[in-house]
């Protein structure tokens, strides 16, 4: 049950609340700012014109014995006012507006300092805004937030999830990963900056986490809503999925560094590609070889080009009669209902079949056993480090993979070599250690 009261605030009242730390523009359920600067400028000119603006909604709660107000609706309006005035927390966000006051002989651009200098400050600070203050339990408040944001720039489905499942461990991890991988996703063309503001990157990351935990493609809406509401996923599962997702995204970027020039930048195709790459990782296939990644890129680009050609022919009503069945199946899965489970499974199988034979299977045994270490040591012509050419003792000896294990190298005597500790550490997953000045021991 909600209690509500109606009152009027001046712009100065809101500024005072902001400076006193009693106004919270970003409660957990609030969405990101989506207004453009032109929207903010229109609001400021409306205030100077004395035009009424829609009411703001504030959730009144107590914090350390004093009232604090969470903004349910009106964030963009209040934020724009604070930006224009360079109020506390917005001192670097100022902008100007083009306006003509009665004494002006034309339109001029005014910043806040100009407004104060020419004596228009009091009119702006005294402008009154209608407000609705509400109190109640959090579930009712979130429901109200979703309802009042169902018009205008409506909440996206992910923005609604953000409000409704604020405490979901899965959502919290998805938001963290969206920050971490957001620039990479934007660079690849998968999401744009405006889409990131509407939390599309969080939605995509959430979907990928669910699919990785479930080890396969899932139906978009049903699986995601169910996972947010009551996932049943443990913290360990979520953490492991986050690690796998990061690895799969980096692999996708390594294979297709120019992804934005291919159809795999489309969310439906990118989703399928990442899930397949994660599956290949779980099957211990090495995806670090530059040569193998190049082969995979050629296959994916050829598929993308053929699909684009098919789409162009369909647009011109020139569909060929004999089309490869797999190509046709993939193409049809991207038409209507691209995110349906059946279509996602089709794309997953086709991409998996295309890529699984490209990459080498990694040896399940990573470390050389004692017998292998002795054989590698004794088969060397001299106890000398292959990297720095310095003499190595048994105590300082490292049995190293000539071809790195992470790149498909086998853990066998024929793929072993003698390295000192320093060179083995510097080598990492490269085919040879860094060349540096030898260190005398």
Please describe the topology of this protein.
Elements: E1 3-10, H1 11-19, E2 23-24, H2 37-48, E3 56-63, E4 66-73, H3 75-85, E5 97-99, E6 108-110, H4 112-117, H5 121-125, E7 128-135, H6 138-148, H7 157-164, H8 169-187, H9 193-197, H10 200-214, H11 220-230, H12 235-255, H13 267-282, H14 290-315, H15 325-333, H16 341-355, H17 370-379, E8 397-401, E9 416-420, H18 421-427
Parallel strand pairs: 2-4, 3-7
Antiparallel strand pairs: 1-7, 3-4, 5-6, 8-9
Describe this structure in words.
By secondary structure, this protein is α/β, with parallel strands linked by helices. Helix content is 49%, strand content 11%. The longest helix has 26 residues, at 290-315.
Supply database-style keywords.
five-stranded mixed beta sheet, two-stranded antiparallel ribbon, disordered C terminus
What number is the mean pLDDT? 85
> Based on DSSP secondary structure assignment, what is the total number of beta strands?
9
**Helix and strand composition category:** alpha/beta
Outline the low-pLDDT stretches.
436-441
Query: Radius of gyration in whole Å, from Cα?
Result: 30 Å
Biggest β-sheet description: 5 strands, mixed
Percent of residues in β-strands: 5-15%
Helix content: 40-55%
Which strand order does the major sheet show? 1-7-3-4-2
Order of helices and strands: EHEHEEHEEHHEHHHHHHHHHHHHEEH
CA(first)-CA(last) distance = 77 Å
């Amino acid at each position: 049950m909600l209690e509500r009261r109606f009152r009027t605030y001046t712009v100065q009242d809101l500024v005072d609340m902001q400076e006193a730390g009693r106004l919270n523009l970003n409660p957990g359920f609030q969405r990101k700012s989506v207004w453009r600067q032109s929207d903010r400028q229109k609001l400021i000119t409306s205030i100077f014109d004395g035009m009424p603006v829609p009411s703001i909604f504030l959730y009144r709660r107590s914090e350390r014995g004093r009232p604090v107000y969470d903004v349910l609706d009106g964030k963009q309006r209040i934020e724009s006012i604070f930006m224009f005035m360079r109020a506390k927390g917005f001192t670097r966000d100022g902008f100007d507006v083009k306006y003509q006051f009665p004494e002006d002989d034309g339109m001029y651009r005014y910043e806040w300092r100009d407004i104060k200098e020419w004596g228009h400050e009091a009119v702006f600070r005294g402008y009154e805004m209608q407000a609705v203050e509400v109190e109640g339990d959090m579930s009712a408040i979130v429901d109200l937030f979703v309802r009042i944001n169902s018009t205008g720039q409506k909440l996206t489905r992910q923005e609604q999830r953000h409000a409704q499942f604020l405490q979901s461990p899965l959502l919290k991890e998805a938001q963290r990963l969206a920050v971490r991988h957001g620039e990479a996703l934007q660079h690849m063309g998968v999401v744009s900056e405006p889409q990131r503001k509407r939390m599309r990157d969080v939605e995509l990351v959430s979907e990928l986490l669910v699919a990785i935990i479930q080890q396969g493609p899932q139906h978009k809406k049903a699986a995601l809503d169910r996972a947010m509401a009551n996932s049943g996923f443990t913290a360990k599962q979520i953490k492991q999925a986050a690690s796998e997702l990061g690895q799969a995204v980096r692999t996708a970027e390594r294979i297709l560094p120019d992804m934005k020039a291919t159809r795999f930048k489309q969310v439906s195709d990118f989703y399928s590609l990442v899930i397949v790459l994660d599956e290949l990782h779980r099957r211990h296939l090495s995806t670090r070889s530059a040569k193998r990644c190049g082969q995979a890129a050629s296959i994916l680009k050829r598929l993308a080009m053929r699909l684009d050609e098919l789409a162009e022919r369909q647009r011109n009503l020139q569909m060929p009669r004999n089309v490869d069945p797999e190509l046709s199946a993939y193409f049809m899965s991207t038409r209507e209902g691209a995110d349906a489970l059946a279509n996602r499974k089709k794309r997953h199988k086709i991409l998996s079949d295309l890529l699984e034979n490209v990459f080498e299977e990694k040896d399940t045994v990573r470390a050389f056993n004692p017998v292998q270490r002795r054989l590698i040591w004794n088969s060397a012509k001299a106890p000398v480090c292959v990297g720095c050419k310095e003499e190595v003792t048994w105590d300082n000896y490292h049995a190293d993979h000539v071809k790195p294990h992470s790149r498909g190298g086998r853990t066998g005597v024929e793929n072993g070599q003698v390295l000192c500790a320093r060179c083995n550490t510097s080598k990492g997953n490269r085919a040879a250690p860094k060349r540096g000045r030898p260190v005398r021991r």
